[in-house]
Amino acid sequence: MRRAGSWWRGKSTPAKVETYTRWSFHFLALVEVATFGLPSLGKVPSSLSWVLFLMVVGHAALSAVFASRALDWTRGTRARPVRLLGALAVTTAVIAVVTIALATRGPEGDETSTAAAAAFIGVLGFGTGTLALAVREHRRMAYIVMGYALGCGAYSLSVGDPALSALLRAGVVLLAAGFYAFVSAFSVWLLNSVYELDAARETRTRLAVAEERLRFGRDLHDVMGRNLAVIALKSELAVQLARRERPEAVEQMIEVQRIAQESQKEVREVVRGYREAELGAELAGAQGVLNAAGISCTVTGSTAGLPAAVQSALGWVVREATTNVLRHGNAERCDVSLRAAGGLAVLTVENDGAPPDSRGGTGSGLAGLRERLSAVDGTLEAGPAGGGMFRVVAQVPLPSSALSPPAPSPDSSSSASAASSSAASSSKAASPSGPRPVRKAMGEAISERFAS
Q: Which residue, of 21, 85, 345, 428, is most buried by count of CB atoms within 10 Å of its CB?
């Protein structure tokens, strides 16, 4: 039982719908035998009962095989079953002729006529509806249904059946075949819609990944664009000074070397992800991406009061956990909670899309998260939580300052204003030189070169 449950839980939602659709048509074949084949064994004389029963069984088996092949054709994994289509159409027509002849010219008895008429209507209804699986145009489906109904009425009249009785049989066949054809067409439409929705969900996931790559590219552009423009202009200036044998060329090249080293350091920070991640933005982004992918996501807790280092570490946990939810399993719900208790900041990410044999702690992404959390003395636990749930729990100790913030002093406002004024004056004093003294002297040239 556990293996059967794991087999079912391991399937994706479209695969589950496809399995359900296939077995529904197989079950309908059993319904045809039980409803229209078995009653003939007791109502029709023994010389004809087994013949009628075996015809219904053969038609049901052929319908089940044809339904499976037609669904394969619908999914694009097999060619259109043209031969089976013709065989099923001919078999349905032959059995209909035999049963209607048995109902009108067979042995005397109401039970024989009733059983034969029921088999006639059942075979035509199930056969016509199954044939609709291999037809994509709704107009052709209607033509098939009306063709069988008109043929039923015409044949009934040709064998001497009264006009009212023939019209009644044609109407019953039209209703039965039309209903079953509608069920078949709706089943195929539903199956295709589920697969299309799943493809759209994967497309949304890929778009989210592409958006993240664009954000990463913008970060690299912001880091390298202006620095490379400065390096190019500095190098050009150094060349001109060197040609004139000016000693300032050495200073310019030293500045180029310094800017290049800074750029290299900044690029490493971007690539390795050492820029601090804002936890609130990561939580909001994760909720938006998961909801866009069709996964119901709820976020509880507040990031207020958490230190920047703690927020950065937990932000990477949110990002990696969100990626795992999108890439692995088949989640429908994801809950993210953040709380501070007992001197710890605890982040919990739980989803219901854990694969049957999922194990926590084996991926390189989780190993990288443990390294990031170890930098702030944090821990990470990941693994199945029972009931098809997968849980990631990150715990980071909080510093004493975050647990008990100091009370403001009476003269805090004056000291704060003094500090701000001193900071403003120092920034004004430092602004002419700044971290990059060439920015003011060559600002217009840099902007022009960077824009080009």
A: 345
